[in-house]
Design a protein that fits this description.
This is DUF2795 domain-containing protein. InterPro entries: DUF2795. This protein is mostly helical and about 110 residues long. The chain is about 45% helix and about 5% strand. It is elongated.
């Protein structure tokens, strides 16, 4: 399950969801899209039973392969390793901003 599903797969399955949404609403929405794999539905079933404000919160809550593409640069992954997160939160799930040089390059 977790090894074949990426955070991007989960987020893509939730493109039509109106946020905020509960875990049950997210699971139901993924089933309704028809394009969600069994792995995506299973990953959503495994998230904590909270209300999620946006797709980023969902992406940080699903258990996926740490190497899956969250769209982070090597600098952002290094920052995740340096900073502390919430207790019990995996390093690859820590929210980090883009470094200033990457912000400037994106302009």
């Amino acid at each position: 399950m977790a090894h074949s599903t990426s955070a991007r797969d989960v987020v893509n399955a939730l493109k039509d969801v109106d946020f905020p949404a509960t875990k049950d609403e997210l699971v139901e929405a993924a089933r309704r899209t028809g394009g969600a794999s069994d792995g995506v539905v299973a990953a959503l079933r495994a998230i904590p039973p909270d209300e999620y404000a946006n797709k980023d919160e969902v992406a940080r809550s699903v258990r996926v392969d740490p190497a899956s593409d969250l769209g982070l640069s090597p600098a952002q992954r290094a920052e995740q390793a340096r900073m502390g997160g919430r207790p019990g939160q995996s390093q690859h799930l820590r929210d980090v901003p883009k470094p200033p040089v990457e912000e400037e390059l994106d302009r």
